Structure formats: C-alpha cells, structure tokens
C-alpha cells in the first residue's frame, strides 16, 4: 500500500470534489496529477480560491486531460452525463475509474462492464461511498437470516422532501432477497390513527422521522423473543464519504474487472 | 417519613397486587393491616400460595374490612367497578385512597372529588403508576415550549394490537396544549410509500414499532437547528409501577384533597 | 412579542457572532442597530466579507457605540475581558445585556448584579446558550428526586482533551444538590480492568466516549427496578446556540434584574 | 428441514432447561425422546410440576439413557462437570451433542474434538447461545477493518459484580485480532476525574454502566470523520437463548466435525 497512486479528478470545485482534494492531499501514498473542470483551463488547483495548495493542472477538455496525464486512477465526482463520457475515456486510456453516481442506466452499466473487460481495466462504480451505510446494509442482510422480524427507522432533517429515504428502501429490498416473504406484527393489529405503523415493504415496516437537528441517520432493528439487535448508521458530515472514496481507490488498483457497489469490494 | 403508614390493599392476588405486597413488605415504614379479596375470607395473606409471609387478615366483604381495620391508606388494584365502590367506602371511613385505574367515568370522578372535599380526606387516582412515563410526559410538555418540532416513536412487543399506544397519543395531546397548532416537516414533503411519515396528531408525527424482544418503550424527540433533545422511557417489568404506588402512598398522607395523576403530586 | 427589539452586538466576526447576525436578520421583530468590533471602525456590516447584508454601523470604540446607538438589548459574544467592560457600559446606558460567557469571576458577577439593581436594568448571563442542554440538566435534577440511581455518558469527537466534559460534571453536581449522598452499583462490584466503571462523582458514574464522527452528545440515564428514563442531548452545530440567544433577548426585555443561566428564565 | 429431529435433553428442570423444553415442544420438526435428570428416575416430563405436557421418560443414570434412547441430538444444559461426561457418552453413541458452556478446559476441548473426529459425529459447543450477541461480535470484527476507532458501552443491572462484562472483553479481543494495535483518543487527553475514559483494551475503551432497570445490553460504536456506526444488542429475557439452541440443533445435523461457537456455523 506504500506505492504512490497517481490520481486524476473530475469535478474539483463541487462539495464532494473539494473534500476529495483534501483527502488526496492528506493521504501520503496518493498524488494528484491533474483535474478535469469545465472552467479554469490552464490554471492549477492552488490558483483556485478555496481549494487546497496543490500544484496540479486543470483541463477543461477531458480528452486532452486523458491524453496528457499519466494516472493510475480516475475519480469522477461530476454528474451522470459527464461522468459517463469521462469513464469511457478513462477505460480507453487504461486508467481505472472510481465513479460515485447512482445515475447510470442499465445499458450504460452494461457497456462500461464490457469495456472494462475488453480493456482488462478495473473499475468501481459506487452509488454510496459512506462505508458505514454500506456496512449497515450488509449486516442487515446477514442478520435477516437469523431474525424473522425487522423494522427500519430513518431520521433526516426536515428539508428532505421524500419519505422513506432511498437507503431505507434499499435496505428493505436487500433483506427481502434473503428471507421468506411474510407480514410482521400481530395479524389483528389495528391503526387507530392511519400511518402509525409506517410504510410496508413486503411485511417490513419503515418509519421516516423529519426533524431539524438531524442530518442523516438510519437504524435497522431486528427483534426476536427476548432480544433485539440494532444496527445504526449516523452521518454527520459529507466527509464521511471520503473514507469510501479512499477505500475504492486502493481497491480498484487490485482488480481488473467491473465492480458495482463498495460492498462487493469487502471481504 | 419514618412514621409507619398502615395500609389496606384490595386485590392482593393479581399481578399488580402481589407486587404491591412485596413492595409493602420491603418498605420499612409501611405496614399491611389487611386485604380485601373476594376469595379467602378469614385467612391471612401468608396462608395463600405464592403470596409473601405477611400475617394480615383477608376480608371478602369490603364493608366489614373498612369497619374493622384501622388504616391510613387504602390501595385498590382491582377493577373500575369494585374500585369505585371501595373508594367511596374508604373516603367515608376517612382512609386515604390510592387508586390505579383509568376506568372511572367523569361523573364518578366528580363524585369522588366532592366526597374527598366533604370528608377532607386526601385521594390519589393515577391512570399510570410508572413514574418514568409520567416524568417523560411532563418533560415533553416543558420542552415543547422551547422546541417547535417533535416526533414520537413508541416500541412495543408484537402482541400489542393497537397503534399508536395510548401513552403516545396522550403525550402528543399534552404537547398540543402548550404549543401553537402547526404542521411539521417540509410543506412539500411526499410519501413515496404510504404511512412512512407515521400518524399525525396536530402536526406531530407518531411512529409505532412492533417487534418481539421489546416490552414497552417510548422516545419523544425534539429537534431544532443544530440540536436534538430526546426523552426515552423504557419499561422492562411491571415492578416499575411499584415505585409509583409507593410515592403515591407517601404523598397522599400529606394532602387532604383530590389529585388525579402522579404528575400533580410532583413539585 | 411583535414590537421590534433594537439590538447591539459585540463580536460580529467570530463564529458565534456571525451566526448571531444571521439569527437577528432572520427574526422579524429583531433589528440590528450597530456593532462593536475592534476592527472596521466606520464601515457597515454588509461591507465586511462573509457577513450578511445588514446596513448597521461598526464602532471600534465601545464607549462611542453606547453613546451613539439607541438599543434595547446588547449581545456580547467576545471574551470575558472585553465582555466585562462592555457589560458595565451597557448597564450604565440602561441597555439590557445578554452575555454568553462562563468566564466572569465571582467578584465581577457580584458587581454586575449590583449595577443591574442600581440601574433597574435586566441582564442575562448564560454560560450555556444550548437550550436543549439547559433542559437536559433541568430535567435531570427533577428526575433525581424519583430515581436513586443515575449514570451519565457523554460522547465527543476525539479532539477533545479533557474528560469528563464540563457539562457532565455540572449535571452530576446539580443532581447531587437534590439527592442524599450514596454510592451506586453493587457494594461488592469489582473492576477487572481499571476505569471500567467510569469516574465517580458522589456515587454517580460518568463515562466519556471520544470518537471521530461525534460532535457533542450527552445522555443521562436514570434506572429503577423495571424501568429506565433517559434524557439525551445531541448537538450537531453551533447554530444550536442561537435559539438560546434569541430566547434570552426576548426574556431580558421582560425583567429588570440579574439572571444567571437560561434555566432561571424558564417557567 | 421438515424431517423430525429426535432430541435428548440433560437438565430439564433448570431455567434454561425448561425454556428448552418449551422450544422443543413449540417446534414442529423437533421431538423430545427423553431426558437426563439426577432426580425423578422413571417418571416422565409431564409428571413434573411446572414442566410442559411431554410424554418423555426421565433417566437419572446417563449411561442408561444413552443406551436406551434413540436420539439424533443431545442437548446439555447442566454444568461443565456433568456436561463433559455426558458429551463423551453422546459422541460414543454417535448422538450429536449441542453443549452450552464456556467451562470446558483446553484439554477437555481437545479430547472432545478428537473424539468427534474418531466417531465422525458432529458436535457444537457454544459459550453463548444468544444469536444477537454472536452477530454483534461478528459484525464488530468486520467493521473494525474499515474503522480505526471503536468504543464499547455495556449496560447491566446493578446486581452484576464484575466490570467489564465478559462479552465486552471478548468483543474487544475479536476486534484486536483484525486491526493494527494503536491507542485511540487524542494523545494529550487528560482525565480530570480518574476512570472517565473507561477501561483500555489495546487502545479500545470499554465503559460499564450498572443500573437497576437494565438487564443486559451492549453497544459497539465505530467512529470516523463524519459518521458513526453502532451495533447494539439488547437482551431482555433468557428466552433469547432458545433461537440459538434451535439453530445449533438444526446445524449440528449437517456437520460431522467439531465446531466451537455459533459464529462458526454461520455463513
């Protein structure tokens, strides 16, 4: 792990991007060799207000960046549209992509998988870089084999518009894969006030709390006669994603194929 | 508090009753002088299988019990019907009643209040003897003056048929008394799965979890920009009621009027 | 509460100060009339980089500020030294001070109390503006009358050097005031690893967790046979102090005397 | 899983034993064929006061029981001394043992392992039958690969004499196996009150709460910049062990070797 990994980054000025710059700068064996940014062609990162003091060139033309820079890993923190174009360029240049988006279509994923195979170049696409959240979902799926009953409570700030959260629904779906379909709770239970028992995903109940003061939290509670087992992930800052990005960069160096989801990089 | 309090108990063989006998026996300044029980006329408590070794007589005729026994406090742990008759007998004998039921009608409560006043005899009627639950509700009402947003999560075993719990609804109603009516959460929030946001009591959301492994738990969560304040009561055993009964017995000795709810005995 | 309150602020560029500016700007019935700042004499707030768009003059000479500005309330978010000088100036000008520091000496507090009385001008000094924390301590003191056993767990980021936290120790001291001194836990309990049972304040145990990912959290757990009652305050952002500042500003308008601690403004 | 498993049980009158009888009776594909009990030779289970209505013979002589009964699995819920004798008898009769004790010596374990191998008969020895606790430890070990910092809080009733709990120490040891040894917290952190930071196991801090109202609870908290991941196991009743016993009985039917710990039966 002590050999230096040379990194290209697309999207250095976004919230995630600037955190990624800090993470790269703070990691001894990571080296930023350049960035792709639609603005600031010809400048260096350290010349941009608010970005860390790194002497790496910025290219507004992605093609040019991939032609000129000599990188091991390409991190994309832009958007699905640009990310898709960048990712193909990276694979074609045998630079391993680490991509944080859930926005690619099935067709796009298939194409990238094929291209990774053709080029024998590793790629990691991660819809969620929060390692704690990924572990929460993985542990939930494991626990579901031994506990018949589970409910999910997710708590977010009250600016969040949708309920339940995508993570809560995904957790329920992962659990559903490993258990026999069944309704939970007493068969004769009654709601005296509608909604009290939450949303129902294949018998599992999901509850969404929306309060100022919360950022993003989820607890998955397994119950059985005489015991409960609870797995709780609490996210307080987007810095939490950076340990996942770092992990993905290190892992993509060890593979030559397509991986979707950090959970598939874990032992 | 070191002067002995002489106690009569109705309902010694019920679950609550037998816990009360243990509590009385374990309290130095409490003395059981006799019991009312529809069975076992003429026996003593220690002669009944499963009850503690107390040499106190049992009367099946309540009138006779009140005529013969010299008590300071009368505890009723039977049912609303018998309890109502017993309570009037107690007040008429100037014996202070401590009654644990939520089953009296408004008319019955009014009548007992008048009788307490006529006889200048203190009486405590407590629908909930769990001191922790009473404090939770009281603190919630206090916190609501300083926090605009609150949600309630109550968790019970999956044999419970009704949702939300009576305590959750009562907590919301107590909070409602002290705040301006308003809806919480984002005005544009959407449930992609119905019920996710729980039941709605005047803008407050209530979530009911039903899982084996839980007994009875409630958390009241207040949120505000940058902070949350949570009050959590967890009941694991009906022994929890006995500290409330003990508190009520001690307090009823200090009053000469009608009190409804332990919260009104607290400073 | 709809009459406008005119406010002076000292320390507008500090972290707390700039949050206070946002709070004042976001509150309809608050009006900023001017600031005291050792820099930027003669400018207005909106001319300072990073501060909100408020057209209020800055004075570097506090005496001049108090002479020229017509304010109802003076908020000081500087430091104990400047704060002490400012507070006396404010009282002498019959402007009600709201001061957030725990750094005044007993002598200074006595002097300010006397001056407040002489000038018949209300003043609030609050060592803690987090309303949730103040309520947590208040509820803890109330619950301690009904529960003999309590432990405190406080959780902070791992940059915090001291353990236990000042709030945890203060909470224990407040509880100590209202209960008979006694040791908790089993008399024969043994630590097989030293420190397992935490710090001991008059029989109450305090546990300090230090982990990255936490900001500032404290739970106070009361236990009794069959039940626990937990009060948990979680602070995720210094914005949490602003509801306390706002509350103090509104309350100081209703008093003409010296108050120390937000808890003494609560009903 | 629908083929009936014939079960022998030693220790039917103990707390665990009687729960095991209920579990066997409540499981369709389990059949009790007889019990070993030092009392009640010649009676059947249903003749013993307080035991369920099962018509299975009791033997006080274990040798005789193993000679006469035709069982697939032998469950021992007695004590290490008897358990050791019984287990050897079971293996010699090619009856698969499921043993719940942590009291066997290394020599005894080696001998049983050899005997299992010689007889090609599966055996499960489980020091902890609480599946939730086993999963908590397993998940903790997995999470430790991705989180450098962890603390453990265990909460028990105040009748417990030792601190920290055996489960907490074992959890720390399991984590220690998979991480580089390092101290946590700030290098300059100071305890102003001794014990505040808890016990220290190879840099991990363990905190032991002892309060009435708790039964047995443990939370393992992993922290990282911007996120925490918490795994919490709460045991409220010894019934919680029975799902583990049931799981072990089902699994022991599928193996022909020695397994120590339920975690080694999990996928």
From TrEMBL, chains A, B, C, D:
Homotetramer. It catalyses: (S)-2,3,4,5-tetrahydrodipicolinate + NAD(+) + H2O = (2S,4S)-4-hydroxy-2,3,4,5-tetrahydrodipicolinate + NADH + H(+); (S)-2,3,4,5-tetrahydrodipicolinate + NADP(+) + H2O = (2S,4S)-4-hydroxy-2,3,4,5-tetrahydrodipicolinate + NADPH + H(+). One of its GO terms (cellular component) is cytosol. Residues 179-199 are annotated as: Disordered. It holds the Pfam family DapB_C. NADP(+) binds at residue 39. NAD(+) binds at residues 11-16, 100-102, 126-129. Keywords: Amino-acid biosynthesis, Cytoplasm, Diaminopimelate biosynthesis, Lysine biosynthesis, NAD, NADP, Oxidoreductase. This is 4-hydroxy-tetrahydrodipicolinate reductase. CDD domains: DHDPR_N. The lineage of its organism: Bacteria, Bacillati, Bacillota, Bacilli, Bacillales. It is an enzyme of class 1 (oxidoreductase). It is found in: Cytoplasm. One of its GO terms (biological process) is lysine biosynthetic process via diaminopimelate. Pathway: Amino-acid biosynthesis; L-lysine biosynthesis via DAP pathway; (S)-tetrahydrodipicolinate from L-aspartate: step 4/4. InterPro entries: DapB_C, DapB_N, DapB_N_CS, DHDPR_bac, NAD(P)-bd_dom_sf. Coiled coil: none annotated. HAMAP family: DapB (MF_00102). It comes from the Bacteria. (S)-2,3,4,5-tetrahydrodipicolinate binds at residues 157, 166-167. Belongs to the DapB family. Its EC number is 1.17.1.8. Residues 5-129 form the Dihydrodipicolinate reductase N-terminal domain.
């Amino acid at each position: 792990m002590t050999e230096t990994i040379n990194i290209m980054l697309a999207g250095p000025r976004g919230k995630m991007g600037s955190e990624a710059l800090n993470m790269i700068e703070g990691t001894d064996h990571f080296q930023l060799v350049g960035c792709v940014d639609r603005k600031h062609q010809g400048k260096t990162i350290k010349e941009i207000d608010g970005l860390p003091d790194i002497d790496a060139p910025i290219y507004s033309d992605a093609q040019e960046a991939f032609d000129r820079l000599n990188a091991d890993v390409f991190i994309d923190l832009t958007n699905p549209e640009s990310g898709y174009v960048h990712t193909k360029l990276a694979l074609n240049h045998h630079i391993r992509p680490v991509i944080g988006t859930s926005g690619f279509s099935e067709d796009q994923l298939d194409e990238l998988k094929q291209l990774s195979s053709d080029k024998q170049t590793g790629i990691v696409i991660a819809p969620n870089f929060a390692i704690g959240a990924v572990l929460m979902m993985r542990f939930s799926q494991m626990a579901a084999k031994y506990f018949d009953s589970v409910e999910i409570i997710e708590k977010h700030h009250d600016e969040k518009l949708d309920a339940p959260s995508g993570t809560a629904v995904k957790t329920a779906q992962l659990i559903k894969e490993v258990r026999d379909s069944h309704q939970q709770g007493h068969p004769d239970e009654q709601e005296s006030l509608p909604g009290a028992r939450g949303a129902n995903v294949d018998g599992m109940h999901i509850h969404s709390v929306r309060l100022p003061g919360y950022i993003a939290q989820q607890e998955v509670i397994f119950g059985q006669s005489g015991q409960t087992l609870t797995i709780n992930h609490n996210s307080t800052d987007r810095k939490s994603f950076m340990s996942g990005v770092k992990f993905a960069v290190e892992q993509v160096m060890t593979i030559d194929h397509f991986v979707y989801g950090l959970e598939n990089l874990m032992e």
